[in-house]
């Protein structure tokens, strides 16, 4: 398997089908979706099982609610891809996201791990100015130098855009429980190991 998509889910039934559609319509076809249903009670688990019957690339791990870090680590342990891409159930992938990120890493040997640009969307209502500001800032950080320069401002790579070799996720020890955000912690530990971003 080339790319494993790692996605925790808890009570996301309202956004789940749009998310799954965006994954199933990727220009890159060689992927598996490892979904950890972290104790959903809104029908998300049943929906996931139904979709997985129609698409063998989707694997669902059903667990009692333990939180995002245990869910991510359980899913990571089940990933078989050479690369791991993170995804959240309330987001959508650009149709060529996986292909572009894969080609980006393959074509830039000086980069170990990448994110992607993002575009904010809401099902209803306006997007807040704070969200727009954060997205503009994150989208402006393109190089390893820029990402590391602003690393201590806020998490510079948005979690649902993480993409890197599975061996790198494993080398960094997966995700860890801390009082701060698990994705930010992952990037901070990656910097200590001289991981190069893009």
Overview of this protein structure:
The chain has 198 residues and is an alpha/beta fold. The chain is 40% helix and 14% strand. The chain has eight helices and five strands, in the order βαβαβαβαααβαα. It has helices at residues 13-24, 44-54, 68-78, 97-107, 129-140, 144-149, 166-171, 182-192; strands at residues 3-9, 31-38, 58-63, 83-86, 163-165. It has a five-stranded mixed sheet with strand order 3-2-1-4-5, with helices on both faces. α2 (44-54) links the parallel β2 and β3 (58-63). The longest helix is centred in the N-terminal third of the chain and has 12 residues, at 13-24. The radius of gyration is 16 Å and the shape is globular. The two termini are 23 Å apart. The model has no long low-confidence stretch (mean pLDDT 97).
Low-pLDDT stretches are none
- Number of helical stretches of at least 4 residues: 8
Assign a percent range to the helix content.
40-55%
Shape: globular
Radius of gyration: 16 Å
Nearest-integer average pLDDT = 97
Reading the helices and strands in chain order gives: EHEHEHEHHHEHH
Largest sheet at a glance? Answer: 5 strands, mixed
Give a nutshell description of this structure:
This protein is of the alpha/beta class. It has eight helices and five strands.
């Amino acid at each position: 398997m080339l790319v494993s998509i790692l996605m925790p889910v808890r009570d996301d039934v309202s956004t789940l089908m749009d998310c799954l559609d965006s994954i199933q319509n990727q220009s890159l076809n060689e992927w598996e979706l490892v979904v950890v249903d972290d104790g959903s009670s809104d029908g998300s688990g049943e929906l996931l099982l139904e979709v997985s019957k129609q698409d063998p690339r989707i694997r669902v791990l059903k667990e009692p609610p333990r939180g995002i870090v245990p869910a991510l680590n359980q899913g990571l342990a089940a990933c078989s891809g050479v690369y791991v891409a993170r995804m959240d159930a309330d987001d959508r992938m650009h149709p060529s996201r996986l292909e572009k990120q894969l080609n980006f890493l393959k074509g830039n040997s000086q980069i170990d791990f990448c994110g992607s640009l993002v575009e904010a969307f809401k099902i209803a209502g306006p997007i807040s100015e704070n969200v727009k500001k954060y997205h503009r800032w994150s989208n402006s950080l393109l190089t390893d130098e820029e990402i590391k320069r602003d690393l201590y401002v806020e998490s510079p790579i948005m979690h649902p855009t993480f993409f890197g070799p599975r061996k790198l996720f494993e080398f960094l020890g997966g995700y860890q429980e801390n009082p701060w955000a698990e994705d930010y912690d992952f990037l901070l530990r990656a910097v200590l190991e001289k991981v190069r971003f893009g």
